[in-house]
Amino acid sequence: MKRIVTVLVGILIASVAASALASTPSGPAVARPALFYTVELRKTKLGKILVNPAGSILYAFSKDHAGKDSCVKISGCSAVWPSFPTASKPSAGAGLRASLLSTLKLSDGEMQVQYAGHPLYIYAAAPTATSYVGTKSFGGVWYAVNAKGKLVK
Predict the structure, then answer these.
(1) Which pTM value belongs to this model?
(2) Distance (Å, whole) CA 61 – CA 144
């Protein structure tokens, strides 16, 4: 009986040690899910607009041209209006056309989601508030986007 207890204690100690090693920075790498997003529609007082899965409104910047992120070139803009990133092709939620979704590659290698040619952003300070649609900052205007890819003002 004493031998069985000794073996069980040894197994328990080895298990705890292995667990502790796995949780330290020098332990084995932990797999993380890929950065992947679905673009969705949410009904608001402005009508149905694009949002991310967390409900953050997705904005388009009036200074952008199709396939070009102008914000990234303006000092401080990306801190206030970060791009909507993805690691692969995003998916279209109900009511959206997958054919209007695409990505563009930024200079830092990050992929940004676009809808109908509009690079998409999130307002970092208040991601779910519609009161910032039409905000003028960084030399342009920030609009929400509807399911047809039109700007909501």
Answers:
(1) 0.76
(2) 9
